[in-house]
Specification:
Blueprint lengths: L1 E7 L10 H13 L4 E6 L6 H4 L7 E6 L6 H11 L18 E6 L4 E6 L8 H13 L8 E7 L6 H17 L4 E6 L17 E6 L6 H10 L14 E3 L2 E5 L9 H11 L7 H4 L10
Parallel strand pairs: 1-2, 1-3, 3-5, 6-7, 6-8, 8-10
Antiparallel strand pairs: 4-5, 9-10
Helix pairs in contact: 1-7, 4-5
Protein name: Sirohydrochlorin ferrochelatase
GO molecular function: lyase activity; metal ion binding
Keywords: Cobalamin biosynthesis, Cobalt, Lyase, Metal-binding
């Protein structure tokens, strides 16, 4: 038997924070690739600490539904799962290329394949592009259009910005969009000044957040000038400083993310059969 644990942050304050986690877990559950699929959270139930105890399978694949390698993926989740011998250096990562490591959770007698977060997987580049396609309604979006990959950013974790810039650079190299910039909420260059970083009339903003919440539905829309009051909503596209801004929802709400979770588990050794095709196919190629 093999099991999958989708580990996410969750929230005591935002009831929608866990919605993407349940949606992606359900999509994978329906494929039958795993005998068990378990959601687990830091701020909600079921909690990380109980995740392994609730499973019958002795072989478990844990995939963090987080954007960056950092405090939660390197400290909190391994500690709460009680992974024996864990150390962040086992990932041998520069902040964007964690793969997986196999450890024991001896107190529950399980072998755990602990994977890097979905946010640093190469396939996330394609998910970002898919969000741009969806919000514009144009599967060929790119020429004469600027793309802003928007992250939280923080001085406390350099890997937070690394993940955003990593995908921005990968998209830039494809030369599909006129311009591609990584912008942040809490560090420079700031998303508040988005129009100052683009010459393109049309700009697509894709927030690299797992769930829609306070930042993506309140802060960013008001800060970039989409609306004066988030409660009144905003047009798509919105006219701001002579540009048209197309604002996508959080990247984590994109249904294609279920495939990225499966990619992580498969790379760690899980037998996923044809599950990738049934959740919109293998997304590790050169573009969606």
């Amino acid at each position: 038997m093999q099991a999958l644990v989708v580990a996410a942050h969750g929230s005591h304050l935002n009831p929608d924070a866990s919605a993407p986690t349940y949606a992606h877990a359900d999509a994978i559950r329906e494929t039958g690739a795993f005998d068990e699929v378990q959601e687990a959270f830091w701020k909600e139930e079921p909690h990380f600490r109980e995740a392994l105890r609730s499973l019958e399978a002795e072989e478990v694949y844990v995939v963090p539904l987080f954007i960056s390698e950092g405090y939660f993926t390197e400290r909190v989740i391994p500690r709460e799962l009680r992974l024996e011998g864990w150390d962040p250096s086992l990932w041998d990562s520069d902040g964007t290329n964690a793969a997986s490591v196999t450890l024991e959770a001896g107190d529950v007698g399980k072998t755990v394949h602990y994977c890097g977060p979905v946010g640093t997987h190469d396939a996330m580049t394609d998910v970002i592009v898919r969000r741009a396609e969806r919000v514009t309604g144009d599967p060929q979006v790119g020429p004469e259009v600027g793309l802003a990959v928007v992250g939280h950013g923080t001085d406390r974790n350099e890997n937070s910005a690394k993940a955003i810039e990593y995908h921005a650079e990968r998209i830039r190299e494809r030369e599909r969009f006129e311009e591609v910039n990584a912008l942040y909420m809490d560090e420079s260059p700031e998303v508040d000044d988005v129009t100052a970083y683009f010459t393109s009339r049309d700009i697509v903003l894709v927030p690299l957040f797992i769930a829609d919440g306070f930042h993506t539905q309140e802060d960013i829309p008001e800060d970039v000038g989409l609306t004066d009051d988030y409660r009144e909503g905003w047009p798509i596209p919105a006219d701001v400083d002579g540009h048209r801004l197309w604002y996508a929802g959080a990247v984590g709400t994109e249904e294609l993310l279920a495939a990225v979770l499966l990619e992580r588990a498969a790379a760690a050794g899980a037998d996923v059969g044809d599950a990738l095709e049934s959740v919109q196919g293998d997304v590790t190629g050169t573009g969606v």
